[in-house]
Write a structure and sequence with these properties.
- There is one protein chain.
- By secondary structure, the protein is mostly beta strands.
- Helix content is 7%, strand content 42%.
- The strands form 9 sheets. Strands 2, 4, 7, 9, 10, 11, 12, 13, 14, 15, 16, 17 and 18 form a 13-stranded mixed beta sheet that branches. The protein has a 5-stranded mixed beta sheet with strand order 1-3-8-5-6, with no helix packed on it. It has a 5-stranded mixed beta sheet with strand order 19-44-43-42-41, with no helix packed on it.
- The longest helix is centred in the C-terminal third of the chain and has 16 residues.
- The chain is globular and about 80 Å long.
Length: 783
């Protein structure tokens, strides 16, 4: 069977996109003790506790409600029970009756949502019940639970134990215990790059697939772990490491390669669970925007904001500060055509606070402008570039300007700033070169003392709208201007979001945008439980839902929400940064049915470097995210270990949905969406100006162009020209540069040592080889 052009379009599209499947949430059918679900050792189960209830006598750490599992010990030994993948603060434990929990309570550590309890000593065939609950009645969500046997840790490298998958298990798990007698071996490598005399133990893990994995260590004790490559104790090479209990790492692993895991017991004794699971991944390409190079003393980008210039180049405003003395500056970094970043210092201050308030826009003339707070004088500043000159003016010299602001461009082209001043929200705008400002609202009742802690502004129906947090009243509010009058209304307060959830106050900057239907949307994080809610405002009322994703990614929690964006298909995507010490940025995307989470595994600082002590972190008061001109996501993120600020571009491209000039692609074709995609990406130009010829077979010459163009689209590499041994490729062929490209990449070897056979049709066997070899070149892709 020959490969038709319609099938080729679908094949090429499959390479250029990454499909993500959401995990299915389990129903709380095991709400009561008598309805406990059977759970097996080493096989985790998912649960949704949002609608769970408390039955009479039920107790777990004096909180409820819970869900129940029944566990029968397959052999005598010590068993640990643990919670995992939770988007709420969990409690887990053993019970021998509905009203009698056994063991400790809420053994999570370092802000983790996950817990470990035990060990519980059991004889073969002993039966015990497992409870999974939450830390407070207002904090419910979805998560997982597992039981695993705790074995004495392997003290010597040669005796290391394998972390393996049980049949049907979503994760590979291994329970372990330290008794304080382990010590260290001669020639044992340093733990986490630092010499240690504390006890260590060894595990190994061999991934089943190549790609992103999350390695995680759970314990109520202070354990850390280091991942090594190599097979003998004297030849191990450290790959990465984590510190503190409950630390998780996202990293790329290769199928079939055995990785060595060294666990360091900081407190000598204790129990824990080591887990490995695959992770949904954003293939992030990271660039250093601003490198301070002097470690923790100077930080770049605790607050940052991004925009796109008219030619598609990103420009970033960020704040530099010195932890030692409070000195700082407002900085703009612009990416040049050659990919390098040029930095301009706009303003500097001495002995102020960190000044974590800055925003950037591109004005109608194509030049960037920024607004920022001078923390030394507590003033609001605006600076705009004209040519190569930045001109700065003071917008509010009151000396009481707060640490929250949002810069927008009005419909008439003038800049405007929503900002915090004392306990109020104000709005400043420029007209005729003169700035004026007005009180927006002090929250509607005049009683709050914490108005405007977090602010975002946008144009909605041609008029400014401002979302802000009123932490004094635990509310999110929306102010809108009509004519010259501001009206203020409640967005969310202490009221129900779902049957079991209440919103109890804002944490992090709200994110505003306009959806494809023209409605105002907002993303808000709840300060109390860390959950995030997505709301749509149609001009008169709000419709909210919580984003409670069954996380495929261990040990991540919502933190500072960056931005809600809409991809080319019109689907919302939320960029956020992890708040549970894993140091990553994530995205939650709506796929039309549910929210799906992905994680960026872009490498920031090397946690084994001498300048780092805690791994690569990315905690900031404000990061930003934008949609690139070609549909890719991009965002800013700081590395707090090094003080560097990064620009990360997602290598996943949302397929273009633009119409094509082709009149011969049927509306019922299985490739009706794929042909516009590869046309929009420039992978095909058709057989004529109006024809795609979907039923025609694909020649090897055409396939070379498809593969080369796709490679260029994915990598940005020109990959043109070069030499080949092929004597049958014409100098006038449209693929004269494409065939040398894929030959040099190893995607083709030709039909003989000297022929490529460009006019031959591609068989399905050859197509498989082309695609497989292209995929294997991914090591050359930015990541």
């Amino acid at each position: 069977m020959r490969l038709t052009r319609a099938k080729a379009a679908a094949v090429v599209l499959a390479i250029s996109t990454t499909m993500v499947s959401p995990a299915a949430a389990a129903a709380p059918a095991n709400d009561d003790f008598d309805d406990a679900t059977t759970i097996l050792e080493g096989i985790e189960q998912r649960a949704d506790l949002r609608d769970a209830t408390t039955e009479v006598g039920e107790d777990l750490c004096d909180d409820g409600p819970t869900a129940w599992w029944e566990f029968t010990a397959p052999a005598a030994g010590d068993y640990l029970v643990y919670a995992t993948g939770s988007n709420f603060d969990t409690e887990v434990g053993y019970s021998d009756a509905v009203d009698n929990s056994i063991g400790e309570c809420n053994d999570d550590e370092d802000g983790s949502y996950d817990t470990v309890d035990g060990p519980e000593t059991m004889a073969k065939d002993d039966v015990i019940h497992v409870q999974l609950g939450h830390n407070s009645s207002s904090d419910r969500g979805s998560g997982g639970v597992g039981v695993v046997r705790a074995f004495p840790v392997a003290d010597d490298f040669a005796d290391r134990d394998a972390v393996t998958f049980r049949a049907g298990a979503p994760s590979a798990v291994r329970g372990f215990s330290f008794d304080g007698s382990e010590g260290t071996q001669a020639s044992e490598p340093d733990a986490c790059g630092v010499a240690t005399t504390t006890d260590t133990g060894w595990l190994s893990f061999t991934p089943t697939t190549t790609g992103p994995w999350m390695l995680e260590l759970k314990s109520s004790e202070e354990f850390s772990f280091t991942v090594f490559t190599g097979s003998s104790l004297g030849s191990l090479t450290p790959l990465t490491c984590s510190v503190d209990g409950h630390r998780a790492l996202a990293l790329e692993l290769t199928a079939g390669t055995q990785y060595q895991i060294q666990i360091q017991a900081d407190d000598d004794t204790g129990d824990g669970v080591f887990r490995a699971e695959t992770a949904n991944k954003i293939r992030g390409m990271a660039q250093v925007i601003d490198a301070t190079g002097d470690g923790n003393a100077t930080q770049s980008g605790d607050a940052s904001a991004a925009a796109l210039l008219d030619d598609g180049r990103p420009v970033v405003a960020h704040v530099l500060h010195n932890d030692d003395n409070g000195d700082g500056s407002a900085v703009v970094s612009e990416r040049a055509a050659d990919g390098t970043w040029d930095r301009t210092v706009i303003d500097s201050w001495t002995s102020g606070d960190y000044g974590n308030a800055i925003d950037i826009v591109v004005m109608p003339d194509g030049e960037p402008a920024i607004a920022y707070r001078d923390p030394a004088a507590q003033t609001l500043e605006f600076s705009q570039r004209s040519g190569n000159t930045w001109t700065t003016v003071t917008v509010d010299a009151s000396g009481t300007v707060g640490d929250a602001l949002s810069l927008i461009v009005l419909a008439n082209g003038n800049p405007a700033i929503a900002y915090q001043n004392g306990d109020t929200v104000r709005f400043a705008q420029r007209a005729g070169g003169t700035w004026s400002d007005a009180l927006v609202d002090s929250d509607g009742d005049g009683t709050s003392t914490d108005v405007g802690d977090e602010i975002d502004a946008i144009l909605f129906e041609g008029q400014p709208a401002i979302a802000y947090a009123d932490s004094g009243n635990d509310e999110q509010r929306l102010a809108r201007r009509s004519g010259g009058t501001w009206t203020d209304s409640l967005v969310l307060g202490t009221r129900s979001l779902s049957d079991a959830e209440t919103y109890t106050g804002a944490d992090g900057r709200p994110g505003l945008n306009i959806d494809p239907d023209g409605d105002l949307v907002i993303v808000i994080q709840d300060d109390d439980n860390g959950h995030t809610s997505y709301g749509v405002f149609d001009g008169s009322s709000w419709d909210f839902e919580e984003i409670l994703t069954d996380r495929l990614i261990a040990e991540l929690g919502w933190s500072e929400t960056a931005r809600v964006l809409f991809d080319r298909a019109g689907m919302p995507v939320i960029i956020w940064q992890d708040g549970n010490y894993a140091g990553h940025v994530g995205a939650s995307a709506w796929n039309g049915t549910t929210w799906v989470e992905q994680i960026s595994v872009a490498q920031l600082s090397n946690p084994l470097a001498a300048t780092t002590t805690d791994g690569a972190e990315s905690f900031a008061d404000h990061i930003d995210a934008i949609l690139m001109a070609d549909g890719r996501l991009a965002w800013t993120t700081p590395d707090n270990e090094t003080g560097d600020l990064y620009w990360v571009e997602d290598q996943y491209r949302v397929c273009p949905s633009d119409s094509t000039p082709f009149t011969d692609v049927s509306a019922t074709s299985f490739a009706k969406d794929d042909v516009p995609c590869i046309y929009g990406l420039g992978i095909t130009t058709g057989t004529s100006a109006t024809q795609y010829s979907p039923a025609d077979s694909v020649t090897r010459e055409q396939m070379a162009s498809f593969m080369a163009r796709l490679y260029r689209e994915l990598t940005g590499d020109e990959c043109s020209g070069g030499t080949t041994p092929f004597t049958d490729v014409s100098a006038t062929s449209f693929a004269k540069n494409d065939i040398p490209c894929i030959y040099g990449l190893g995607i083709t070897t030709g039909t003989t040592g000297t022929t490529y056979a460009p006019s031959d049709f591609v068989t399905r066997e050859q197509m498989a080889a082309f695609i497989g070899r292209l995929w294997r070149t991914k090591a050359a892709f930015p990541s």
